[in-house]
């Protein structure tokens, strides 16, 4: 058989296969692969038309047989797969190095297009095309869109094989140079076309599997998310019932504690208030008596807080018991924490909130205890007549709610990161306490997935921030 006739038949077969695969891909286009599919189809059609024209791949000996338009189509068909496999939604910075090499290879192709037709222009064009196809294979490998698809390996094999084919053709042209031109054996062109058809088939099959597999995987993930949502709904329903039962048990426990522990303290406080009222103001010992009564009331408040820290802290934190968060009004919880403070000190606390109804998913008992400890810390370590700013802020930037307590600072060196450790207190602090208050605040924050921190302003004030995420 005449080799020129065989070359023509192989060229037609190659172009027909590209058109056929383009039609199949067109009817397989999904919205998630729209950009990639159409770039690939355009690359196929460009390569097919370039092969039907006097082809660059089938090297001609004379300049008169060279077709510049065919050269342009061939270059476009090699470059487009790179951007198709990169995808529109992937950050180009991921491929910054390969983009630089691609730009250099494209520059070489443009240079070979303006050079006089001959062995140098053809060798440079083939070599640059091989580099671009190798970069395309690398992009396909690195792009997470194509991860775990079997077709990716087939596509990468086809791209690398085609890149080696182009580099081989560049070597053939260089080895067959004859002055400015070249003289190539047609049998090598036949072999090259046969390899090109095989590598093209691998690339098309691999790419088609990616275009079909990705939508199927997205649908599978959607189905899994739906199943997971259904399971989560059932689990939340069961958890709601469990929390309802647990809340009932906790209410019974708290009621018992209130009756057995808090009620006697309240009775003692009421008796002290009655005694304070009974002391006549004009009596000689009135001043000393009222001072003693105030001290006794302060001791009862300290005992109440210590009991709360001991019972709730040990019960829910040290034993790593599960908390019972529910949607509650954060402003109301903060207001109750303020009422837990001593009555003679509570007027120093100024509460503010951007919204009087701030609902947060949290355990109100534990958060109330944590806020009570923050307020007690501020009352204890600030000037006696200074005001304390107690604020509830919804943090849209952090998706949560902050409870901030701002007070005067006696000395900046009293605070460091160890203040939240167990039994830790500011160095040189004169206030009385067990050193568990801020430690329990940190534990409450961690139990809710939040945090607690402090910020010193100009060595004059300090703000403690208890953050609870939504």
Can you walk through the features of this model?
With 470 residues, this protein is an alpha+beta fold. It folds into 2 domains: 3-228, Rhopdopsin 7-helix transmembrane proteins; 323-469, Histidine kinase-like ATPase, C-terminal domain (Heat Shock Protein 90, 2-Layer Sandwich). It is built from 11 helices and 9 strands. The chain has helices at residues 3-26, 34-52, 68-86, 96-114, 119-142, 150-175, 186-278, 286-318, 330-339, 364-380, 437-447, and strands at 177-178, 181-182, 326-329, 349-353, 359-362, 388-395, 400-408, 451-457, 461-469. The strands form 3 sheets. Strands 4-6-7-9-8 form a 5-stranded mixed β-sheet, covered by helices on one side. Strands 1-2 form a two-stranded antiparallel ribbon. Strands 3-5 form a two-stranded antiparallel sheet. Helix 1 (3-26) packs parallel to helix 7 and helix 5 (119-142) runs antiparallel to helix 6 (150-175). The longest helix is centred in the middle third of the chain and has 93 residues, at 186-278.
Name of the level-1 CATH class of the largest domain? Mainly Alpha
> Number of helical segments?
11
| Largest sheet: number of strands, sense, barrel closure | 5 strands, mixed
Low-confidence stretches: 427-431
CATH architecture title of the largest domain? Up-down Bundle
Q: From N to C, what is the helix and strand string? A: HHHHHHEEHHEHEEHEEHEE
């Amino acid at each position: 058989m005449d080799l020129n006739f065989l070359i023509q038949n192989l060229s037609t077969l190659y172009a027909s296969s590209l058109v056929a695969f383009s039609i199949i891909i067109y009817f397989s286009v999904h919205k998630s692969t729209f950009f990639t599919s159409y770039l690939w189809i355009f690359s196929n059609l460009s390569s097919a038309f370039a092969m039907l024209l006097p082809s660059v791949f089938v090297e001609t000996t004379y300049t008169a047989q060279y077709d510049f338009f065919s050269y342009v189509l061939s270059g476009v068909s090699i470059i487009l797969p790179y951007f198709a496999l990169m995808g529109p939604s992937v950050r180009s910075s991921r491929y910054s190095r390969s983009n630089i090499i691609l730009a250099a290879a494209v520059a070489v192709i443009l240079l070979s297009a303006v050079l006089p037709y001959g062995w140098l222009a053809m060798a440079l064009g083939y070599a640059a095309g091989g580099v671009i196809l190798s970069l395309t294979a690398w992009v396909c490998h690195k792009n997470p869109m194509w991860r775990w698809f079997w077709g990716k390996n087939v596509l990468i094999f086809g791209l690398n094989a085609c890149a080696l084919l182009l580099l081989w053709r560049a070597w053939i042209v260089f080895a067959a140079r004859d002055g400015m031109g070249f003289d190539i054996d047609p049998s090598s062109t036949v072999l090259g076309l046969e390899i090109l058809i095989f590598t093209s088939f691998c690339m098309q099959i691999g790419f088609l599997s990616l275009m079909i597999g990705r939508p199927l995987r997205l649908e599978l993930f959607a189905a899994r998310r739906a199943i997971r949502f259904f399971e989560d709904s059932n689990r939340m329903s069961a958890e709601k019932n469990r929390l309802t039962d647990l809340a009932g048990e906790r209410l019974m426990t708290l009621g018992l504690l209130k009756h057995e522990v808090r009620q006697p303290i309240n009775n003692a406080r009421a008796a002290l208030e009655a005694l304070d009222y009974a002391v006549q103001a004009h009596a000689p010992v009135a001043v000393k008596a009222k001072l003693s009564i105030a001290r006794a009331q302060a001791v009862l408040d300290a005992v109440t807080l210590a009991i709360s820290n001991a019972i709730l802290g040990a019960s829910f934190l040290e034993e790593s018991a599960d908390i019972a968060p529910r949607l509650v009004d954060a402003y109301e919880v903060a207001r109750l924490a303020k009422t837990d403070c001593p009555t003679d000190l509570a007027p120093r606390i100024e509460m503010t909130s951007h919204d009087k109804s701030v609902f947060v998913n949290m355990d109100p008992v534990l958060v109330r205890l944590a806020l009570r400890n923050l307020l007690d810390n501020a009352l204890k370590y600030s000037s006696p007549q200074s005001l304390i700013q107690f604020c509830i802020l919804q943090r849209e930037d952090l998706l949560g709610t902050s409870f901030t307590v701002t007070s005067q600072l006696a000395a900046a060196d009293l605070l460091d990161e160890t203040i939240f450790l167990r039994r830790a207190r500011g160095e040189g602090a004169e206030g009385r306490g067990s050193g568990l208050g801020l430690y329990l605040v940190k534990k409450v924050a961690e139990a809710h997935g939040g945090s607690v921190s402090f910020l010193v302003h100009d060595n004059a004030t300090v703000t403690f921030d208890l953050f609870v995420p939504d």
